[in-house]
Amino acid sequence: MENKKQSIYEYMASQLKGNELPEDFSLPQEWASSGPLKWTDGAMDGIYIYHTAHGRLPEESEKDIEKAVKAASAGLGADADRAFQELTGKYQAIAIMDALLDYVAEHQDELDAGNIYRFAIHLIVESDDREQVKAGLTLMQLFDTDVDVLRDIIRSMGLADEFTLYSMLDILHWEHANEELFDLIKHVHGWGRIHLLERLQPETEEIREWILAEGIHNRIMPEYSALTAFEKGGVEELLASSTKLPARTFASVGEILGALLDESAVTGISGVESAAGVLLHYLEQAERQTLAIDDYKLLSKIFYYTTAQAKDLSEEKDSTGADRAADTAGLAGSGAYIWNSLSDKALRLLRTGEAEAAVKAAVRKGDAVELAMALGIPYEKDVFMLMQKDFDRYYGYCAYLMNSPAWSEAVLDLYRKKIPWDSVEDDPREETGLGEAFALYTKLDALLQSMKGECRTAGDILLKTLAAPTIRTRYLTLECLKAWTAMAGQPLKSLSQRIWDKLQDVAAREPRADLKEEMKNLLGDR
Fold it and tell me: Using an 8 Å Cβ cutoff, are 282 and 257 in contact?
């Protein structure tokens, strides 16, 4: 007899350690609906929520939903399975969630609620398809799930980041929903935590303190939860207090502000109505605290952010003649003046003996190099010593040294000693360079990227990297040669006959049309 394929629920149950899944847990790729691309559990839904414009569903989706729901309502197990498989094969569950719930609600008099209820449980517990499990959890929003057996199932599914969002929407209908969400958020660490924080309410001091200390700590990006943690953790109120904050509270506040200042993924500090006032109060708190290296990094972020705000407002005034006030209450002066005063305040905290000592100590451990560069604190010797001591860990620090004539030759010599050059293949292929098997070329890429056009004395290295199997290594080598010829104002053949000869050989073997074209340009064939 053919073995029945294990369901997702069964697989998760086999992985549970107490009330939490293992730290490295992820659903097997065979259960993904994203093709060969590997997504972190919950990522497809997370990107849909935060980075996708949600237009109208195609017209045929209404008929697809109707067909699937009617099959479930009729108790036609095999037909319903096929209909929902087709439905979730065409649409992400998150995209049709509202439409699915609306259809059932609008046609409840025509549908058999008991059959739909049983089918939803069947999808959750017996399906081996992620999107069908999500559809089952979605349908359960229509029923009373605040009963022992169903609570246990929904809690268990919520422990996987892929399903946390859908379990959360069921839990929100429970009598003690917020307590349940607070318990669950402590046991998920990826996209699930991000979703839960959006719905968790700081009803107690314990919850508020947890949000403050742990709310942004997820395995995706702290920025996704920074604004929510700022608001629900009461950061603005804490900073407005005239008393000195406890060291741990001050550190948590700093982490949240740091994430708010990184607005690359989602809205951050620009979503804080009184941003200037918040930053002023933080700087006032910083003056009372014993600062650590992470605090100085944040002060540097604040300096650059406030300087940019002042510059933007000054340019706006120059172009419009209007002087827009800063987004704060209680601070006197024009917007540009206020932001400049905050910038000056942050810089004063960075220009202290304590700051310099902290930065130097951090650099010796491989940290805060960019802060040292920004503050003009010597870092080169310490960075080079780190590269010498542990090249595999710190090879990327060549980026901090290759622009210095005093250190670039030392870095090149270190590479000559540390790289097993006999292992560098002379075989241009279409390798992406991903994975441990290509770690050698990742090290070479770091050097090539930081070298730019300063490669006059690196000809022996370029002769090796020109025919590397990895696309990026060859591309970066060509970028170095292009920059070198442009800086020198001479063709490659005049600069190095050996490299020109090698390039001619590699061009004949190059599999990529775009790189071959670049090679011909350097050879002077175009």
Answer: yes
Secondary structure class of 418 (helix, strand, coil): helix
pLDDT the model gives residue 2: 46
Q: Is 24 helix (H, G, I), strand (E, B) or coil?
A: coil
Query: Do 225 and 268 meet the contact criterion of CB atoms below 8 Å apart?
Result: no
Cα–Cα distances in Å, from 67 out to 126, 335, 402? Answer: 21, 59, 64
Q: Which residues contact 519 (CB under 8 A, 6 or more apart)?
A: 478, 503, 506, 507, 510
Decide: 159 and 21 in contact? Cβ < 8 Å.
Answer: yes
424, 465 Cβ separation under 8 angstroms: yes
> Which percentage of the chain shows pLDDT scores above 70?
94
Task: Quick: pLDDT tens for 312-338.
Answer: 887 766 565 555 555 544 555 567 889
Look up the pTM and report it.
Answer: 0.89
Q: How far apart are CA 272 and CA 286, in angstroms?
A: 20
The CA distance from 365 to 114, in Å, is: 63
Q: Is 217 helix (H, G, I), strand (E, B) or coil?
A: coil
The angle at the Cα of 180, spanning 174 to 184, to the nearest 5 degrees, equals: 135
- Digit-coded pLDDT (tens) for 348-380: 999 999 999 999 999 999 999 999 999 999 999
